[in-house]
Amino acid sequence: MERTSPPLTDLVRRWQHGWGVACGLSPADEADGALHVLSGKPGRNLESIVLDADGNPGSLRLHAAQVAGSPHPDWLTVPTTDPAAVEDVLSSEGLRLAPAREHFMTTDLTAHPQRTAGARYAVDLVREGPILAARITDEHGDPAAHGVMVVHGDVAVAHNIATYRAHRRRGLGGALMSALVRESVLLGASTGLLTASKQGHHLYTALGWTRLAGVVSAGTRR
Ligand SMILES: CC(C)(COP(=O)(O)OP(=O)(O)OC[C@H]1O[C@@H](n2cnc3c(N)ncnc32)[C@H](O)[C@@H]1OP(=O)(O)O)[C@@H](O)C(=O)NCCC(=O)NCCS
Questions:
Q1: What Cα–Cα distance (Å) separates residue 6 from each residue in 12, 23, 25, 105, 161?
Q2: By alpha-carbon position, which residue is closest to atom 34 of ligand 1?
Q3: How far is the CA of 107 from the centre of ligand 1 (A)?
Q4: What is the pTM of this model?
């Protein structure tokens, strides 16, 4: 098994910062080897992100036990190079595993391919402070795809990238990411970070992103 290295831990911190900004959350507290943030999402009162589950299994068990025993529906997110082993630990502590693993990915934004949307689509990008919000509409002005990228120093974190079902596999995900990356690079970013769903993993891999680790999530059983 490949060990989670300190640089990965730091990338997880930087990813969480961008994700938190994208979601309008307060900054996370770091304690006992994890980041803790009040996420306010249904089923995710307090979300804890374990920073070095592979190198510090004690912190994984500690936080798993805390989430399992919480009176609230809390949530645990674990970047790891050994997702199956982490799932065993979380299940044995009594947590309810999320239906699917995700993927922690990165790329060199300065080398990102530039894709464009077809002629029937319009790409629109607005910036509010560190947050870039892109959306693609079709020829009727109806929404076809949207997504966000948060720029902080030399890192840009992509969040909530989605193409509406009827418009998928027409290059819109690629065009959306290209627009966000182009603007992020102009703002000084060079490293991209994100967590990807299975479908997202296909898209980002096609755009040259690489997988750093799996991401296992689980919640309080109630
Ligand atoms: C992931 C998602 C944004 C992709 O959007 P999209 O507009 O369909 O992506 P594109 O058409 O630009 O795809 C570009 C390439 O990525 C790859 N790809 C994208 N979706 C794929 C899929 N479901 N399966 C396999 N490959 C896929 C393909 O190589 C594709 O090129 P091709 O169609 O010529 O084979 C879309 O499926 C989606 O919104 N899914 C639900 C929400 C989600 O999971 N978002 C990602 C969060 S991380």
A1: 10, 26, 25, 16, 28
A2: 169
A3: 17
A4: 0.95
